[in-house]
């Protein structure tokens, strides 16, 4: 299969044949993981993942979205470490439920399929009876791991229990790309370094015109959760390294209820 795909690509480049359609010659393994529509093999750290695995990740994700959810997702990014007893967890869960009851058939909820706030929004969506989507990769730390293979690579423990349909990517970078690319709207809840990585990918792609404009919301009390982040962006604007007008597309909402109202209006629902 790999050799055939390579030969077809060479032939297409040299003009010998018509290139294949976007989902031809694609094998999307599932590895018998419940609720997983695709399971990419675990190869190790990003540096050693072969190119064909990156291509498989992306093409299988594209096929999943095109075949099942062509309008895309309302994607929530946020902390894996904020637990169920936190009011923010409960607010995110309530938003996932309310959104799914009203609009989940058109724009399903999607998260990174981990614990914390990702689990919260998936729980709300699943318990509301709608699709609950998760895009993830490998995070199961192996106490006997090596620098190249720090994780155990067990696909059965990567999706949180509230994901009804999930993808497990070989590559964390491809997973991030697919999450952004497949979002009809983006909700950013408080988080740590992983969430910050995602925030700045989204901001830069939107700012520089590398991504079609979609609604981008920052959720939670601005004073409590986003003061330092706003100060960092303000500092960039004052130093001239980023224009305040270039980042003006981002919106803030204090609660899931406010998010529900404003996002429905943005998506013209």
Automatic annotation (TrEMBL):
It catalyses: AMP + H2O = D-ribose 5-phosphate + adenine. Its EC number is 3.2.2.4. GO terms for cellular component: cytosol. InterPro entries: LOG_fam (IPR031100), LOG_family_nucleotidases (IPR052341). One of its GO terms (molecular function) is AMP nucleosidase activity. Pfam families: Lysine_decarbox (PF03641). Signal peptide: none annotated. It comes from the Bacteria. This is AMP nucleosidase.
